[in-house]
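Risk register update: the risk of archive-format incompatibility is retired. Evidence:
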Amino acid sequence: MGLWETLDKSCAVLLEAGYPDPWSWTPRQIMHRLEVHNWVRDQAALRELEVGILASRGEGKHLKEFEEKTRARHATAPEQTGLETRAAPAAVENRLRAEHSKLPWSARGQ
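Archived output:
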């Protein structure tokens, strides 16, 4: 299969997954996003398989352990995991604010 056929199939998968217009990306971006998409999909399938196996055994203790482990892995805030994160250095924060102010949508609300 040639490059264009591979890119065409990759873009079809990404479009079905909900990504807007993957043809506007470079071939490297398309293939990277497809690899990430496939990895996330595979991880979700493995998680569902593990839940199915645990549920078929009927062991509630193992299901609760799995649920807690999954919550900690997918936590959105540091207090959910018990881990603390350090604040970014002031220089990094100032640089990010300066970069953000250059973005086209930052002036819309003003």
